[in-house]
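Researcher: Quick test of sequence recovery. Tokens follow.
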């Protein structure tokens, strides 16, 4: 029991660290052009980070998507109906491959239209990018 609790606590800490790591990186050189908001409320849902002008939401996957797929599918549909695109990254990728994550976000900022590679618009939760 205690071992499982330690694993859960470690996982949560890793997600918080990954989120902060990514947030600080997004405040870098393109901050004036692509301003991200952290813990932003959109359509009643709290998202990790959002670039409102680009209609892009970036989230760190912490396993909640797999734990409650119907909730996250409805959440994804609502956010996409508001014109946002969702991009999810695993916390390990943010911590270990930040430059690749930033490159993916930069590519996504250059795209137009809702949905991401066809994911999400049919009710499926957008894929978690594994780099």
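Model:
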């Amino acid at each position: 029991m205690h071992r499982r609790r330690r694993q859960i606590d470690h996982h949560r800490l890793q997600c918080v660290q990954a989120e902060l790591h990514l947030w600080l990186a997004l405040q870098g050189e393109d901050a004036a052009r692509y301003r991200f908001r952290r813990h932003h409320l959109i359509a009643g849902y709290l998202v990790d980070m959002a670039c409102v002008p680009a209609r892009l939401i970036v989230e760190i996957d912490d396993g909640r998507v797999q734990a409650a797929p119907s909730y996250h599918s409805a959440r994804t549909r609502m956010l996409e109906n508001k014109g946002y695109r969702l991009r999810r990254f695993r916390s390990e990728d943010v911590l270990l491959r930040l430059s690749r994550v930033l490159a993916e976000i930069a590519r996504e900022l250059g795209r137009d239209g809702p949905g991401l590679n066809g994911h999400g618009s049919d009710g499926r939760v957008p894929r978690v990018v594994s780099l």
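Helices lie at 2-26, 64-67, 69-81, 91-96, 98-109.
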